[in-house]
Amino acid sequence: MSSNLTVDELHAGMVAQVRQTQELIEKTDYQAVGKFVECLFDAYKTGKRVFIFGNGGSAACASHLAEDLAKGVLDNLDGKKRLKVLSLADSTPFITALGNDCGYETIFREQLVTLAEPGDIVLGISGSGNSPNVLRAMEWAKENGLYVCSMTGFSGGKAKELSDLCIHFEMQDMEISENAHLVALHLIVSGLRGVLQREG
Predict the structure, then answer these.
(1) What are the structural domains of the chain?
(2) How far apart (Å, rounded) are the C-alpha atoms in residues 61 and 53?
(3) pTM of the shown model
(4) What kind and span of H or E run contains 166?
(5) Helix pair 7-25, 174-199: axis angle to 10 deg
(6) CA 107 → CA 69, 89, 101, 104, 129, distances in Å?
(7) 79 φ/ψ sector (left φ>0, alpha ψ -120 to 50, else beta)
(8) Closest CA to 33 of 142, 198, 183, 196
(9) What is the CA radius of gyration of the chain?
(10) Calpha distance 59→104 (Å, rounded)
């Protein structure tokens, strides 16, 4: 290898991350995940919308979850009612316009002002739980009658405090927190798929 890191050291680091991820996943709050699935099913039945947002890797999780909830929960696309779900991390023109003109901390809040109504659901994803733009959006949602959820790592930060429901993974490492978030994402999707199949 060209670096000073030996193959054994590289392997040991990988094994340690897998082990830490496994230990964290085993602490998953299944009750919180199940409650979020119930909220999504209620939104599906009532036609309420779901807005998901986050930064960086959490933005990727928001996009991934929105796509899976829109399509991946359905066994086929013929004549099926759909969950109205949107990732607020996906509109590059809107995000850059808001960031440039109003400040980066507004990029999710202002999209909610445009799109959301009382009774809708928001899910803010933040490893630290303290991302200013996530918190601004969650604060607006709480003030305007939306159901406020979060998915967090570390101590949960202010996002956990603001939430009506928080799926929290206590881990002082961003990568391992995001590993757990991806697993929780798929638990949510498979959970809602199962409910929809049972309900017909």
Answers:
(1) 29-199 (3.40.50.10490)
(2) 8
(3) 0.94
(4) strand 165-168
(5) 40
(6) 22, 9, 10, 6, 17
(7) left
(8) 183
(9) 18
(10) 14
User: CA-to-CA distance for 125 and 60, rounded, in angstroms?
Assistant: 10
Using the 8-state DSSP alphabet, how is residue 52 labeled?
A: E
127: enclosing H helix or E strand: none
Spatial contact of 155 and 129, defined as CB atoms under 8 Å apart: yes
Show the beta-strand stretches assigned E in 88-135.
121-126
Tens digits of per-residue pLDDT, 17-35? 999 999 999 999 999 999 9
133's tokens: 């733009």
First to last CA, the chain: 56
d(C-alpha 24, C-alpha 27), whole Å = 5
Q: Look at the block and give the residue holding tokens 């956990």.
A: 160
CA angle 83, 85, 89 (to 5 degrees): 165
* 3-class secondary-structure state, position 148: strand
Give per-residue pLDDT as tens, 77-124: 776 789 999 999 999 999 999 999 999 999 999 999 999 999 999 999
Give Cα separations from 73 to 66, 76, 83, 195 (angstroms).
11, 9, 9, 9
